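Handout, page 2. Input:
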Amino acid sequence: MDGVDSVDSERQPVPGPELSDLDYEQARDALVEVVARLEAGNLTLEESLALWERGEALAAVCRARLEGARARFEAVRQPESEAD
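Output:
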């Protein structure tokens, strides 16, 4: 099983902007691109795994941005009497 460990250590990250720099729309669009590339196939196993991992990270960014927006919306929607 030593070959598996050496393959994992050679994995290169999928190029793209830093996740923390992405707004919701950018992360969503990047996720759509990742899905399209995975569905198109013609990738090595390692490329597929790297794309899958980036897709998972992008989905987490989308989820966090939506949760943040939801919290802001709820804070604005809440009557002032309940805010105290």
